[in-house]
Amino acid sequence: xxxxxxxDLTVHVGSVAPLGSDCRYLDALLxxxxxxxxxxxxxxxxxxxxLTVLAGFAKTTMAYKIVGPLNLGLILxxxxxxxxxILALVYVRVAGRTYDPEVERLRASMEKSRQ
Length: 115
Known about the structure:
Layout: E1 2-5, E2 10-13, H1 21-57, H2 59-62, E3 65-67, E4 70-71, H3 72-114
Helix pairs in contact: 1-3
């Protein structure tokens, strides 16, 4: 549970309470993270809903044989699985290189200010 007081910029999340610039920095970090997550989520949901709509309304198109027993529907399902893994790997890579070091720096700064 999080509480926020705008007059002294206090944010309580568990036992951590960043103050002042740390709070603003945390807000900026969360905003940057959301800027990455929103497009990834939109890409995946568009693919997932599109596949569902095609499966429901374009059955003859989805049944089109590509090679042997593989049809277009199965290929698109496999594409959806691959897309989910690719998007997850993109997020992990960006988070590991960008957000995790910044979170560690912020954590060290907050622990230093608490002492």
